[in-house]
């Protein structure tokens, strides 16, 4: 089991299943949402338990996805595909986890949109989209 929270603690969550591989998204939307890029991990929707969901705010950043954040402190927490028939997962920002994580980042995505103020030089696979 893995636990996490927002900055102020109004939202706490636990994941009751194993975590998948993590990726880092460099798309312009993720950069604007977080202030940099978004390292996250996908978890089975049914394995995510949220305490304080009444403090959770959602922003529909496109017709395909919404982004969840704390309405009190603004912490970026969840990336949620809207078509649940195709996507039975929710991505959680790695920085929101409190418990030690055993997996490492596996790849970078949307590097074609990465910011020009940093380089990616960790040797991991880089996907243009």
Give structural attributes.
mainly beta, Metal Binding Protein, Guanine Nucleotide Exchange Factor, Chain A, 7-stranded mixed beta sheet, 3-stranded antiparallel beta sheet, lyase, CENP-V/GFA, Mss4-like_sf, metal-binding
How do the helices and strands line up, and which of them pair or pack?
Blueprint: E1 2-5, E2 12-15, E3 22-25, H1 28-34, E4 38-44, E5 48-51, E6 56-60, E7 65-70, E8 76-81, E9 89-93, E10 105-109
Parallel strand pairs: 3-10
Antiparallel strand pairs: 1-2, 2-5, 3-4, 4-9, 6-7, 7-8, 8-9
Distance between the termini: 31 Å
- Unreliable runs: none
Task: Label the structural class.
Answer: mainly beta
- Anisotropy-based shape: globular
Q: CATH topology of the domain at 2-19 and 39-103, anyone?
A: Metal Binding Protein, Guanine Nucleotide Exchange Factor, Chain A
Average pLDDT figure? 95
- DSSP summary, beta strand count: 10
What portion of residues is helical?
Answer: under 10%
Order of helices and strands: EEEHEEEEEEE
What about the largest sheet? 7 strands, mixed
Radius of gyration: 14 Å
Strand order in the largest sheet: 6-7-8-9-4-3-10
CATH class of the domain at 2-19 and 39-103: Mainly Beta
CATH architecture of the domain at 2-19 and 39-103: Beta Complex
Pfam families: GFA (PF04828)
Keywords: Lyase, Metal-binding, Zinc
Organism: Ferrimonas pelagia
InterPro entries: CENP-V/GFA, Mss4-like_sf
